[in-house]
Design a protein that fits this description.
The complex is a heterodimer of chains A (84) and B (569).
Chain A (H helix, E strand, L loop, with lengths): L4 E6 L7 H12 L1 H5 L3 E7 L2 H13 L2 E7 L5 E7 L3
Parallel strand pairs in A: 1-2
Antiparallel strand pairs in A: 2-4, 3-4
Chain B lengths: L13 H36 L12 H7 L1 H36 L3 E5 L5 E4 L1 H6 L20 H5 L2 H8 L3 E8 L2 E11 L5 E10 L1 H30 L3 E5 L5 E4 L1 H7 L3 H4 L4 H4 L3 H11 L5 E8 L5 E10 L10 E7 L1 H37 L5 H32 L9 E4 H12 L7 E5 L6 E4 L1 H17 L6 E9 L2 E8 L6 H6 L20 H11 L4 E5 L5 E8 L6
Parallel strand pairs in B: 12-14
Antiparallel strand pairs in B: 1-2, 1-5, 3-4, 4-5, 6-7, 6-10, 8-9, 9-10, 11-13, 14-15, 15-17, 16-17
Helix pairs in contact in B: 1-3, 12-13, 13-17, 14-15, 15-17
Classes of the chains: A alpha+beta (84), B alpha+beta (569).
């Protein structure tokens, strides 16, 4: 299996809910590719609220969200399809 | 909407028009404000629904609100959420069906209980093996329909799971004649509290029965092994078992002693590597070449230097499943048997000679009597006396042979014991020898006339006759023979002493052996080699003992003890 293409969304400086809305818009646009496992979305955010709301919203939509803390100080939320 | 009313009759003035437009503009602004307020409130409602905060006006301007289209985004996201819910529900439904199928088809009886022990769900196996009724038991406390005994509650899996919050086992739950191992599994809520307990009843009745059978079989095997070990230990024959590659797998103590090796050290070692005896090696090699059931006499020298003759017999452990299985070699000590055979051969030779000599005389003299007409009366009586004497000799030999064969056959000696005077028996027996042809002088010690022994008269007479007969045979003509009867150490002691050729220590030690004659080469002395053997049997049958004291050239003393008659006082 090839590695999925990664789309990076840098919303550092934005706070919720706009950061969530921006992320949702990207997820809506790429829902099919995400579900097929062809791509994943990496969201760069420095909002602590977003680190909670984005994974919850992604999970409700059926995606898997992994939160990584970057050495640079921000968070990276990696959203991908749920492995069956 | 109609914000203004135009008059048909007159055109409005500019001022009026400005005022009108201003009013309309204000109205439109109000409508716009209300619209944005509505959109913002609905957007916030949607955002709150998906779990985030409301939009703050300073975060998103009204113009950006339209441009960003949060309602569109959230709506579209909701479509995704709903699709995900639909897929998840489909999966859940499938999973539920799978669980239900497993629940019903699993071999175990499965109960789902709430913390108050009420039955929430159960499968059909529960009805088959645990319940006695067909009624629905949902909602009923399980101990009212399943356990029904306080003893079972002591080992309740439900209680254990509630206490520990972990899976628990309650073994050996007995109900309806069957035995179950009950596995309790908790179902936890998000806070870790037990919401339900799943009890799986695994029927282990057969397993327990098999386990018991297995233990019984194991016990039997152990007992059989002990029996075999005891048997092997008790065997006087040596036994060595080897596997298909001729390696030692078993050896008993007798074999260890004979071969001078230890099973502990030689287990698994090829037998030929540890056997030193050339004879046994030759035997084993012959077996290896294919000779089956081979029997060999092998000369051994034991660790203490005694020569032994061992008969080795090797058999193949034939098995239908394998052509070449192990072998068993039995080492039977035949030293004594071979010695007996040798003595018997000598005896037969001696007996034949002894039977032939008197028979030749009987035949010779009877021929003379038949064929000669001119034999005088004196000569005839002399011949007949000789024939009678030789016939008596033959009778003695035959009588001794019959006695010993009866004793050997295990018939033993039948005694009729009565109080007898030892001195009287001595005198009576000696009287029979007083006028014999050898001219022996007898001295009977009469100092113990009061010794009374509890014996069979005939048997004791036979003992004394044998002893006196031996004393006559093995002492010079005219020699003295001393016979005495005394009491010593609570026994009556009869003693016969001669002044004859005597015996070595070794000869004396073997004197009681069957067919043994101190000097078998001297066939001039008549005898079967059975006399002393018979004496020993007769004395021992009375509970007495017989002993010999002798030195070469200094005569022989044979002493027999017999039980005394218990005195009344």
């Amino acid at each position: 299996m090839t590695s999925p293409e990664e789309s990076v969304l840098d919303i550092r400086g934005q706070v919720c809910p706009s950061s969530l809305l921006t992320t949702l818009r990207l997820l809506n646009m790429n829902a099919e590719s995400l579900r097929r496992g062809e791509m994943q979305v990496r969201v760069l955010t420095d909002s602590r609220d977003a680190v909670v709301t984005i994974p919850n919203a992604a999970a409700n939509m059926g995606f898997h969200a992994l939160i990584e803390k970057s050495p640079a100080g921000h968070y990276e939320v990696v959203i991908s399809h749920v492995a069956n | 909407m109609s914000p203004t009313k135009q008059k048909a009759t007159s055109e409005p003035s500019e001022a009026e028009l400005i005022e009108l437009l201003t009013a309309q503009n204000a109205e439109l602004r109000q409508i716009n404000l209300e619209a944005f307020t509505y959109i913002r409130s609905k957007t916030n409602q949607l955002l709150n629904t998906i779990g985030t905060k409301s939009l703050r006006p300073e975060e998103l301007e009204d113009s950006s609100l339209i441009e960003l289209d949060p309602i569109g985004i959230v709506t579209q996201s909701f479509q995704q959420v709903l699709e995900n819910l639909r897929v998840t529900n489909a999966r859940l439904h499938l999973a539920h069906q799978e669980v239900q199928a497993v629940f019903e088809s699993v071999g175990s009886a499965v109960l789902v209980l709430d913390p108050q022990m009420r039955i929430i769900a159960y499968n059909k196996r529960v009805r088959e093996v645990l319940l006695n009724a067909d009624d629905d038991v949902t909602g009923i406390v399980c101990q009212n329909v399943v356990c029904r005994s306080g003893e079972a509650l002591q080992n309740c899996a439900h209680r254990k799971v509630l206490t520990s919050g972990r899976p628990e086992l309650a073994p050996n739950f007995a109900v309806n004649g069957r035995v179950f191992d009950v596995i309790g599994q908790p179902i936890l809520d998000a806070s870790g509290q037990v919401t339900h307990v799943v009890l799986a009843y695994n029927d282990v009745t057969e397993h327990k029965r098999n386990q018991a059978d297995l233990l019984t079989a194991l016990d039997e095997v152990r007992r059989a092994k002990v029996q075999i070990d005891t048997l092997l230990r008790s065997m006087s024959d040596g036994l060595v078992a080897t596997d298909g590659k001729r390696r030692i797998v078993l050896m008993n103590q007798a074999a260890e002693e004979l071969l001078g090796i230890c099973l502990h050290e030689s287990l698994g070692v090829p037998l030929l590597d540890v056997v030193q005896s050339p004879g046994l090696r030759a035997h084993l090699e012959a077996v290896a070449k294919g000779e089956t059931h081979l029997l060999s006499d092998i000369e051994f020298v034991t660790a203490d230097g005694h020569p032994r003759i061992i008969q080795a017999r090797t058999s193949t452990l034939a098995d239908a499943s394998a052509a070449d299985q192990g072998r068993i070699t039995l080492l039977h000590d035949v030293t004594r048997a071979r010695e007996i055979e040798r003595i018997k051969d000598e005896f037969l030779s001696t007996a034949a000679h002894q039977l032939r000599t008197p028979l030749a005389s009987v035949i010779g003299y009877s021929d003379l009597l038949i064929q000669s007409d001119d034999i005088g009366v004196d000569t005839r009586i002399e011949y007949l006396t000789l024939i009678q004497s030789k016939a008596e000799q033959l009778s003695e030999i035959v009588s001794n042979l019959l006695d010993i064969s009866r004793i050997e056959a295990g018939e033993g000696v039948t005694l009729t014991c009565e109080s007898q005077s030892a001195a009287a028996i001595c005198a009576e027996v000696v009287a029979g020898f007083l006028h014999g042809p050898t001219g022996h002088q007898f001295e009977v010690d009469n100092s113990a006339t009061d010794v009374r022994i509890l014996v069979d008269h005939f048997a004791v007479s036979q003992v004394l006759e044998n002893l006196i007969s031996n004393a006559i045979k093995y002492s010079p003509r005219g020699g003295h023979i001393f016979v005495s009867a005394r009491e010593a150490e609570g026994m009556g002691v009869l003693r016969v002493r001669d002044e004859g050729i005597g015996m070595t220590e070794q000869q004396a030690a073997q004197a009681f052996d069957k067919f043994y004659r101190a000097d078998a080469s001297n066939t001039a002395i008549a005898g079967t080699g059975l006399g002393l053997t018979i004496v020993r049997h007769l004395v021992e049958a009375h509970g007495g003992q017989v002993s010999i004291a002798s030195q070469p050239g200094h005569g022989t003393t044979v002493q027999c003890t017999f039980p005394l008659v218990e005195s009344d006082g």
